[in-house]
Specification:
With 449 residues, the chain is α+β, with helices and mostly antiparallel strands. It is built from twelve helices and 15 strands. The chain starts with 10 loop residues before the first helix and ends with a helix.
Length: 449
């Protein structure tokens, strides 16, 4: 287990070590995981550290296109000001831009200094406070999948640097890793200064698809920060190589979708793993956590699969789960128990897409696992064999149904205002897609009917 990354004492301390930085991007991550903020000169950094960066409080709840979501308490209050305050995390160097620049990560507060209910860091922090109150520490790691693309074509192509088109599935292919070594080497080189504790990189099941793993940590908030920063870093480095990196859940119908898997174990106050199968109660506690995750899945589906495209990933034969099942060492189940034993015993939550917000994903995964532990819920029988053929309930596979059921079973985990705002945001996103006439629709109906 890694320790939380070391952060600078002040932003001025950081800037003194990086005098080459000519501009800064100070920003919060909104509920979709998009950056919202301002471009600043280094001289403004002391003011940001002292009193925060003035931003509309509603910046956290813009829809995916950056439009206001009117059905929320902020807009009803007249769209008041908020403050983006430095998280304490070291800025992220962005050397793919024309001039040396860096991203200063912020968290949204209201002008009175209260954390905004609609900031993902706030949502996760409140869940972690519940763990802390019980002298428990969640140990987490994420695995994030993405595609490297040439986006200059109408249909993006899977490419390696230099323009070679990748057409065949290449799971665990060393050749595909080698073809993209320039991008991966730059990524790992940049991870050190960014304090990202990256583990292995692998070639995944889709052509041009890769996965990067993190080391396990007892700081879940830092893990969410790391995962979000990794997405920004991968996109920027790909751009420097003339490519595009996509965390879209299903960019190609004929290739594997991209997921964000979460590994979780829980330490007690003495530092012992509650799931350790050498403990008399280890297996039972693991089962309780699994039960909490599966029972709450219909109400968490909108966070795990937040967009129209997210639901294309949840199909049989794709390694993405379609049934609310759990199993020992079975990658077709929604919750997998890896083969690790003893102190390394853990669960792997496999439902979230790579397009989901890591703060919100970790909040609902940790929150519902804790809820299952507290209630001593019993899981259904473990699945064996092909989980796609299980008669267990289905993973939420329709966007509209996930919107309707969002928040079910999440009392005490998510703020009611967050549930209302996130649902309204997704309804607005859905309605705009429904209002568009696609080329395929014209091709089908224009002359035929």
């Amino acid at each position: 287990m890694t320790q939380p990354p070391t952060s600078p004492r002040t932003l001025q301390d950081w800037l003194s070590v990086h005098p080459q930085v000519a501009s800064l991007r100070a920003a919060v991550y909104d509920l979709n995981g998009c950056l919202r903020g301002k471009r600043l000169l280094p001289a403004a950094l002391s003011g940001v550290e002292r009193s925060g960066l003035g931003l509309p409080l509603s910046a956290s709840v813009q829809d995916i296109w950056g439009r206001d979501v009117w059905d929320n308490p902020m807009m009803r209050a007249g769209d008041p000001d908020g403050q983006g305050r430095w998280t304490g995390r070291a800025p992220l160097l962005m050397d793919w831009l024309a001039a040396p620049s860096a991203l200063v990560p912020l968290q949204m507060y209201d002008v009175g200094g209260a954390p905004s209910f609609a900031d993902g860091r706030t949502v996760l922090s409140r869940v972690l406070a519940d763990y802390n109150a019980r002298s428990l520490t969640p140990v987490v790691a994420t695995e994030l999948e993405f595609y490297l693309l040439d986006a200059s074509h109408p249909q993006p192509r899977r490419v390696a640097p230099g323009g070679r088109v990748l057409t065949a599935e290449g799971v665990l292919s060393i050749d595909d890793l080698d073809r993209c070594e320039a991008v991966l080497a730059d990524l790992y080189r940049a991870a050190g200064p960014a304090a990202l504790s990256l583990g292995a990189a692998i070639s995944e099941g889709g052509a041009g698809q890769f996965e990067v793993n993190f080391a396990h940590t007892g700081d879940a908030l830092a893990m969410a920060d790391d995962t979000m920063m990794l997405k920004h870093l991968v996109k920027g480095i790909a751009r420097r190589h003339g490519m595009t990196a996509s965390f879209m859940a299903k960019p190609f119908l004929d290739m594997a979708g991209s997921g964000m898997h979460v590994h979780l174990s829980i330490l007690d106050g003495a530092g012992s793993n509650l799931f350790d199968d050498r403990r008399a109660d280890g297996a039972a506690r693991l089962g309780h956590a699994v039960a909490g995750l599966l029972a709450a899945a219909p109400g968490t589906g909108l966070i795990l699969a937040p967009h129209l495209n997210s639901y294309r990933r949840l199909e049989e034969g794709s390694h993405a789960p379609t049934t609310l099942t759990w199993a020992e060492d079975n990658r077709l189940a929604a919750v997998r128990i890896p083969a690790a034993r003893g102190a390394a015993r853990r669960l792997e939550h496999r439902m979230a897409g790579a397009d989901a917000n890591p703060y919100l994903v970790l909040a609902v995964v940790l929150g519902t696992a804790l809820k299952g532990l507290e209630a001593r819920q019993d899981p259904p029988p473990a699945t064996t064999g092909n989980a796609y053929e299980s008669d267990a309930p289905a993973v939420p596979r329709r966007w509209g149904a996930a919107i309707d059921r969002f928040g079910d079973g999440l009392d005490g985990i998510l703020d009611p205002d967050l549930i209302r705002v996130f649902r309204a945001q997704k309804m607005q996103e859905r309605d705009r897609f429904a209002a568009e006439i696609t080329d395929y629709e014209y091709a089908t109906y224009l002359e035929c009917v």
